[in-house]
């Protein structure tokens, strides 16, 4: 699609006006300009209006007049003049051209303007150039109260904000003078052209004089008195310029002025519609923000300013702008960005540091704008095409991953480097020993063996069952769990020994063991972030042989005991998405010394303490010292990791409540404490997980299901399982949401997207 920064606002009326001038005998400044000046002043309630040949000339002329010695209060060489860091070049240059000193004031990314109270920070300032950016202003009531109290001179650069008001007063009418631009892309156009407005006859006379060479030909006024020695038609009383407009510009201005209100209405409708589409777009995960009008300002935005999330600043902003160019969506930076970064500052003041203007830096690095049509109201089809195209940018289409990256993994780099350089790269070393000591209080076990993977640790538990209880012929495993436990059991036991049992539909854990066979084995899996209450099960059924898959459970507790401590043995996983990660890794944990000794030998290829002497058939399941170096960096941050996890869950709950989102969280079993590993949510009576996944994918939200019921796998068709199972219901109703490295804005976005999905139902 083609989407321009500005539209042609010329019609037949403007053409007729230009032709009329060209047919007349007056092309230079004359009655058409004077007529337009009077119409402009009358329409916007200004005392005086003076047209010039451009908005930049308006700034130059206004500041020159404010420095004029004939003025009752005038600026003097060297005076400090405040100017926003986000401004146009000719908001600054006239300050320098009049031998004044520009002092830059930071801009607020929320409004693109300065904060009025910041004026107080500059006690030596004698004047200020307000730059009303793209239609918005600062709090002009507060700003002018400070300006008047400090006896400052004020110029309003209103070139981008014609027709905007603050508390029902048109911008440009607050300061000593105000300037406007009629450049082709602005609210109205005379192709090139500008206007200065002022309050007093004195200022008006000075402006007229300087506009035309410093002479007094055009009026009898105070600056022309007492010069009888020269011809009044060529009486030069001051140093001036030739900044006069041409007649055809005045004639166009009068026509444009008649249409400005109608065009503003169209622009405002398009502005609101485009903004709404952008802010509510299904892919806008806080990627794009729209600056706000300052409270009290009735902003007439002449474009659509956009601010990217700061994570997209700099190079990525340029990539987006190039992408938009490729799609024929014209765009540009917000004015000059942070003007302090412009190369010309080497001439103005090379000692000014851009980093001293953090707000302007954000605008510079994340800001751009696109056009806002003024001739026609965009159809819904065109709006959708525009906004969908914007969000087609590849960086806006990266999924919000279920698992993003490990917590502060950079901390592991020096440890890993040290481990690689040490003698013990592989199976022994200081990092393995440190990890085991730090893990002991976390899982409440005295004996720990670090393994290659979590599945390796589960294999060690299964070996313990076979070693300690060789006659056990009934092993219970919960449904809707990761398959590692069942897979490993099937390597050691026949399928008929294994029975899959239901988990509770609310807690996703085993809650009832009354009907289990006596003296059977139970492999408990602490599921997601919920904990099975092992002490309670042991009281209810002391005959059961209990092992714990604690891969998702560590950080949790039952009856104040750490998870993993109350079974015969437990397994931990340090896979990429677990609370601690070493990429891959696990731990076998127990308080039983005999089992520890047995597994220590088994996991080391059956070795004994005697060098290279094997006492059994074993495996090599040991973690390397390098892997342990990564793990140690994670364990040392346990408190920070847990704090982040808790914050994420509480934030999910906050927005579920605030938005009245019709989803449930996993219920935590009585007398247990969550592990805060990952977070699953439930849409009660939902009939298909696949539909949830499909809808969330449209919003770039990565999700995953609860594990499929065991009976869904072909190779496990013959395994015994509860006939009336909750497992299908659990699979359809529950889904995981991103649970690490997600900030509040992302969580808010996720919940809002879920509301959009389930509201139609």
Automatic annotation (TrEMBL):
This is DegT/DnrJ/EryC1/StrS aminotransferase family protein. InterPro entries: DegT/StrS_aminotransferase (IPR000653), PyrdxlP-dep_Trfase (IPR015424), PyrdxlP-dep_Trfase_major (IPR015421), PyrdxlP-dep_Trfase_small (IPR015422). One of its GO terms (molecular function) is pyridoxal phosphate binding. One of its GO terms (biological process) is polysaccharide biosynthetic process. Signal peptide: none annotated. Coiled coil: none annotated. Pfam families: DegT_DnrJ_EryC1. The lineage of its organism: unclassified sequences, metagenomes, organismal metagenomes.
């Amino acid at each position: 699609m083609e989407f321009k920064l500005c539209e042609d606002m010329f019609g037949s009326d403007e053409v007729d006006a230009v032709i009329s001038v060209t047919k007349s005998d007056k092309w230079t400044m004359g009655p058409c300009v004077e007529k337009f000046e009077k119409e402009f002043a009358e329409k916007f309630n200004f005392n005086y209006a003076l047209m010039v040949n451009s908005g930049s000339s308006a700034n130059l002329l206004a500041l020159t007049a404010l420095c004029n010695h004939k003025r009752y209060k005038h600026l003097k060489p060297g005076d400090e003049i405040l100017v926003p860091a986000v401004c146009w070049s000719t908001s600054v240059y006239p300050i320098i051209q009049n031998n004044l000193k520009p002092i830059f004031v930071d801009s607020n990314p929320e409004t693109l303007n300065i904060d009025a109270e910041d004026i107080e920070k500059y006690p030596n300032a004698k004047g200020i150039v307000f730059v009303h950016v793209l239609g918005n202003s600062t709090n002009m009531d507060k700003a002018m109260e400070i300006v008047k109290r400090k006896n400052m001179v004020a110029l309003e650069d209103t070139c981008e904000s014609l027709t905007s008001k603050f508390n029902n007063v048109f911008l440009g009418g607050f300061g000593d003078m105000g300037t406007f631009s009629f450049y082709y892309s602005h609210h109205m156009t005379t192709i090139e052209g500008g206007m200065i407005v002022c309050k007093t006859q004195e200022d008006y006379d000075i402006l007229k004089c300087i506009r035309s060479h410093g002479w007094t030909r055009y009026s009898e006024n105070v600056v022309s008195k007492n010069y009888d020695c020269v011809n009044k038609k060529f009486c030069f009383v001051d140093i001036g310029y030739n900044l006069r407009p041409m007649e055809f510009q005045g004639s166009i201005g009068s026509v444009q002025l008649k249409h400005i209100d109608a065009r503003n209405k169209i622009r405002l409708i398009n502005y609101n519609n485009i903004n709404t589409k952008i802010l509510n777009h299904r892919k806008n995960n806080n990627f794009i923000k729209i600056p706000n009008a300052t409270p009290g300002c009735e902003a007439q935005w002449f474009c659509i300013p956009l601010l990217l999330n700061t994570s997209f600043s700099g190079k990525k902003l340029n990539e987006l702008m190039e992408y938009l160019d490729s799609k024929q969506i014209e765009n540009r930076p917000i004015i000059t960005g942070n003007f302090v970064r412009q190369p010309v500052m080497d001439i103005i003041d090379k000692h000014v540091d851009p980093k001293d203007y953090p707000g302007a830096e954000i605008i510079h690095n994340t800001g751009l704008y696109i056009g806002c049509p003024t001739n026609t109201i965009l159809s819904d089809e065109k709006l959708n095409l525009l906004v969908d195209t914007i969000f087609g940018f590849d960086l806006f289409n990266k999924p919000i991953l279920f698992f993003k990256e490990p917590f502060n993994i950079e901390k592991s780099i020096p440890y890993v480097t040290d481990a690689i350089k040490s003698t013990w790269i592989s199976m022994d070393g200081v990092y393995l020993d440190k990890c085991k000591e730090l893990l002991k209080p976390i899982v409440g076990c005295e004996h720990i063996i670090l393994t290659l993977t979590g599945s390796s640790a589960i294999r060690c538990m299964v070996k313990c069952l076979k070693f300690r209880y060789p006659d056990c012929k009934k092993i219970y495993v919960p449904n809707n769990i990761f398959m590692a436990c069942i897979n490993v059991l099937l390597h050691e036991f026949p399928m008929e020994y294994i029975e899959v049992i239901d988990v509770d539909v609310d807690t996703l854990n085993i809650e009832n063991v009354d009907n289990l066979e006596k003296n059977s084995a139970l492999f408990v899996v602490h599921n997601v972030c919920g904990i099975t209450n092992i002490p309670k099960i042991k009281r209810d059924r002391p005959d059961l042989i209990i092992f714990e898959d604690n891969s998702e459970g560590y950080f949790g507790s039952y009856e104040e005991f750490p998870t993993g401590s109350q079974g015969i043995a437990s397994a931990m996983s340090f896979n990429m998405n677990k609370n601690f990660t070493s990429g891959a890794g696990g731990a076998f944990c127990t308080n039983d010394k005999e089992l520890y000794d047995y597994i220590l030998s088994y996991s080391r290829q059956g070795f004994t303490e005697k060098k290279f002497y094997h006492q059994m058939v074993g495996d090599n399941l040991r973690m390397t010292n390098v892997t342990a170096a990564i793990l140690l960096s994670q364990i040392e941050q346990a408190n920070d990791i847990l704090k982040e996890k808790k914050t994420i869950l509480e934030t999910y709950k906050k927005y579920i409540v605030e938005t009245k989102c019709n989803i449930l969280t996993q219920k935590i079993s009585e007398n247990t404490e969550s592990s805060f590993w990952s977070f699953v949510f439930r849409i009660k009576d939902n009939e298909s997980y696949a539909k949830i996944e499909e809808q969330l994918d449209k919003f770039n939200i990565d999700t995953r299901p609860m594990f499929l019921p065991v009976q869904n796998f072909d190779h496990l068709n013959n395994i015994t399982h509860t006939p009336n199972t909750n497992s299908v219901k659990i699979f359809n109703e529950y889904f995981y949401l991103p649970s690490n490295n997600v900030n509040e804005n992302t969580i808010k976005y996720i919940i809002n997207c879920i509301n959009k999905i389930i509201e139609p139902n």
